[in-house]
Model the fold of this input.
Amino acid sequence: MPADGGRAMTGHSPLRLGLIGIGIGQSAAPRLHRLAGGHYRIDIDYPLFDLADGGDFDACLGACADRRGVNVTHPFKTRAIELVETVAPEIARLGAINTVLFDDGRPVRGANTDHSGFIAAYRAAFAERSPGRVALFGAGGVGRPLAAALIALGAEAIQVYDPDRARAETLAAALGHTSCPIVVAKTPAAAATDAAGLVNATPLGMHNHPGSPLPAGAFGAPRWAFDAVYTPVDTVFLGHAATAGAVVMSGYRLFLWQGIHAFELFTGQRIDLATLTRLLAPTAAAVHA
Done:
C-alpha cells in the first residue's frame, strides 16, 4: 500500500473530493483524507482548487458537481452556504459552511465541521470547564461557527472584534443569547479586557498573512487561547498568549477534528483521533517545524 494511501490500493474509481479556497497550497487536507481513506481501503482523489488568481467560486463549485463533496475554506465559507439546497437550522444560523455534499450533480447539503470540530477539540483539551468570558477576533466564516460553539460550550460572554464592524454586529445579532451576551468591541485590546479565553478566527498568522490580531502588550491574563491558524502551528498570537500565562490550543487540533467529521460525512466512516494522529505524524512534525 502506498505510504499516502494513494490510488494504487484498488482498481476501483476513486472517491472524488477536494478543497476550494485561496492560498491553500500548503494545506494538509489532501493528505488527511487520503490517509484516512487508506485506513479503510478507500481510494480518495482530493485536489486543491486554489482561486488565488481570481477564479470564480461559483463556477468552481459547479465544476465539482461530479464529486461526492468538497471542503470550502477562506474566504468562501459564507458564499458557499448560499449555494446549497439543504442546511440544518442550527447550521443556517452560523451563516457559513465548510463542507458541501453533492448528489446527482447538485450541491444538496451543507455542513460546518469547524463548529462541531471546535467543540470536540475544546472538550478534549479542557473537558467540561467553561470557556468563561471570551475575546473573539474575527466575525467571518470562521468566527461565526466558533462563536456558536463557544455558546454551546457554556461561555459567559463573548467580546468580538472585527475590522469590519458591521460584520461583528451581524454576528452579535444572529447569535447573541441571553445566557451568553455578545458585545462588539471597538478595538482588539478592548475585546481582550478581562477575557479568560482568547480566540483568533482571522487569517492573521498564516504563512501568507503574517501577524497577530492582538498587540503584544494587550493580552492581559488569559486562562486559555486558541488560534484557528494551523500553518504554522506556533503562531505569534499563541506565543504571546503563552507568555501571558494561557494554556494554548493550536489550530492543528481543530484541523484534526473538523477532518474527522468531514471524512465521516463524505464516506460514512468515522476514524478515531488516535489513529488519524498516528497516520499524520510526519505532517504534524512538518507543520511544527
